Amino acid sequence: MQHMRRSGHTSLSSYARKRLVSTRPPALITKESIHALNAVGTELARSGNNLNQLTRYVHQGKKAGWFNPKVLAQFNALMLRHTQLQDQLHQVIKQILHRS
Fold it and tell me: In this structure, what are the phi and psi dihedrals at residue 36, rounded to the nearest 5 degrees?
């Protein structure tokens, strides 16, 4: 809090934003990291949406008796991609924490 007051910031959120993207010693989060996290987050959201749609389709097919096994293969492929993106996100976060 003392650093915040000395720097002239009146709110913790403005001080935190300034410190997180500052290029002065040491930046906790770089612009590149923010862009990488944003890209991965966007892809995870898309994958999650597709997985939800496929899950709904599978449940409807099972209830109606017309389940298509190809849908399960597509679901598995999307789940694998989703898991890969989660792993990528974890790696980016670990890099950020390592730099801090």
Answer: -65, -45
Report d(CA 54, CA 77) in Å as an integer: 11
* Structure confidence at residue 24 (pLDDT): 61
Q: Count each helix (H run) and each strand (E run) in the chain, helices first.
A: 4, 0
Residue 20 contacts residue 27 (beta carbons within 8 Å): yes
Give the C-alpha separation, 50 to 54, whole Å: 6
pLDDT of residue 22: 65
Domain ranges of the chain: 30-99
CB burial of residue 85 (10 Å; 0-12, 13-18, 19+): buried
Backbone angles phi, psi at 67, to 5 degrees: -60, 135
Report residues of the chain scoring pLDDT below 50.
Answer: none
DSSP 27: P
* Identity at 82, one-letter amino acid code: H
